[in-house]
Amino acid sequence: MDPRSALLDHVALTPASDIPAEAWAAARVFILDTVGVGLAGSTAAGADELVASAQSWGEGAIPILGRAGTYPQSTAGLLNGFFIHNLEWDAVHEPAVVHAMSVITAACLSEAAKSPAIRGQDFAAAIILGVDIASGLGVAADSGLRFFRPANAGTIGAALAVARLRGLPRAHFDDVLGLAYSQVSGTMQAHVEGSITLPLQVAIGSRSAITAVDMAEAGLSGPHDVLDGPFGYFKIVEDGGSAAAVAERLGSQWAVTQLSHKPYPSGRASPATLEYVLRQSREHDLRLEDVAKIDGAVTPLIHRLVARPYKPGMTPAYARLCLPYLCALALRDGVISPDAPSDENLSDPMLADFAGRVDIKVNTITDPNAMVPQACAITLKNGEVLQGDMPHIYGAPDFPMREAAYLEKFRFAASFSHRNLSAETIGTLETALLDIDTQDSAATIFTVLGA
Predict the structure, then answer these.
(1) CATH architecture assigned to 271-390
(2) Distance between CA 25 and CA 23 in Å, rounded?
């Protein structure tokens, strides 16, 4: 069997009974996490403007995370995707450098809302298999990021996951893949500039996944050799890699078990340093005024993503990925909150001054996709230096958030929902999500939310 067919068979034909227990367990936890950060993102910067824009795109019956109102399915997928990624709090597959749950869960939520007969087990299975594809595309890549990989790999994984949920015949999956690939978009330029377009690229990916399935179901065809072809994914979007490298993982490595939580709404590149700073702050009772400077040594990828300097007038999206600013917040507040990049904080001269005393340099690692190891040195004003190495990032499988921590994150995130949720509703939703694969309908998520 050719590798492309192996990918498509994996999503279209794998029985739920072939998915191992550890993958089901991880899926429950990360579906919970993704819905939680999506609820928080429903009230983040840019959400009001995008919802206002979406209201001019037609009427529909599909509810969305965290807000009142219903929309056409593709629009609902777009809004869910934006909410899930706009706080940079969503789960990531580190070796792939792909936010593997984001586009896929956003699209599958809209499909489940459209078809309440979709069982929770089918919903979770589609996400598990879609995550295998999105993560596999990232792991197979031989180069660093040029295009925004989470959106592009996510679009392909999401389209195949939605096709499975919709019950499309296997013969249609070749066209779903081609139609999804033909809509991938988004580069790293938005990341460099800290533009609100970054989460919009995830949102657009979710919408594109849904429309690819719609078009294939209606009988439209797409190109087929879109992974290894002369103008395929591994020639244009990625500078190297192969479908064979994706296929060889399928069925033996379940990517959902390899995902990492983001403990803070600040991207995946910052938590190693932030966790070290917060831990030292707690252990030594440090305050912002006690610290003279912070020096970090990070991989080229981490440096590229979050070593950006503090600058006056920076946007919330830029600030969430500005490690010097985040270090200042961590020392001042002892936490990184979803509303940390407020106008008041962004203009705080004390935070600006300290951010100028955080120096992040590149270490000796040459792998363009490596996130670790990292190191940090905190110099106190009394001359003492607190120094540590970070071989793992907090929230990763080898340094995981324990159950109490990820449940606390979910409850905290859900409390920021634009549509106010009571503690009782959040608790009911938590229970439903942790039992998602036993639910008669995946749409129970929206029933609990009162959507």
Answers:
(1) 2-Layer Sandwich (3.30)
(2) 5
425, 426, 427, 429 alpha-carbon torsion, rounded to 10°? 80
* Phi and psi angles of residue 361, each rounded to the nearest 5 degrees, phi first: -115, 165
Residue 113 burial (C-beta neighbours within 10 Å; 0-12, 13-18, 19+): buried
- Tokens 């946007």 correspond to 315
Q: What is the pLDDT of residues 102-157, one digit of tens each?
A: 999 999 999 999 999 999 999 999 999 999 999 999 999 988 889 999 999 999 99
Q: How far is CA 78 from the centre of its chain?
A: 14
132 half-sphere exposure, CB direction, 13 A CA radius:
28
Q: How far apart are alpha carbons 372 and 389 in whole angstroms?
A: 10
Which of 147, 154, 110, 115 has the alpha carbon at shortest distance from 133? 154
Respond yes or no on whether the N-terminal peptide bond of residue 300 is cis (omega within 30° of 0). Answer: no
Q: Give CATH superfamily name and number for 3-262+403-448.
A: 2-methylcitrate dehydratase PrpD (1.10.4100.10)
Helices within 231-342 (DSSP H only): 233-236, 243-247, 271-284, 300-306, 316-319, 323-333
Amino acid letter for position 93:
H
Length of the chain: 451
Cis omega (within 30 of 0) on the bond before 150?
no
> Token pair of 362, please?
């590149």
- pTM of the predicted model as reported, rounded to 2 decimal places: 0.94
Cβ 298 vs Cβ 363: under 8 Å? yes
Cβ neighbourhood burial of 420 (10 Å; 0-12, 13-18, 19+): exposed
The two three-digit tokens of residue 354, written as one number: 């300290």
Residue 64 CB contacts under 8 Å (≥ 6 apart), including other chains:
42, 70, 71, 76, 79, 80, 83, 451
Residue 249: Cβ within 10 Å count: 16
Distance, first Cα to last Cα, the chain: 44
- For 282, counting Cβ atoms within 10 Å of its Cβ (0-12 exposed, 13-18 middle, 19+ buried), the class is exposed
Domain boundaries, the chain: 3-262+403-448, 271-390
Q: What is the pLDDT of residues 280-325, one digit of tens each?
A: 999 999 999 999 999 999 999 999 999 999 999 999 999 999 999 9
Q: SS3 sequence, 360-392?
A: EEECCCCCCCCCCCEEEEEEECCCCEEEEEECC
Same CATH topology for 3-262+403-448 and 271-390: the answer is no
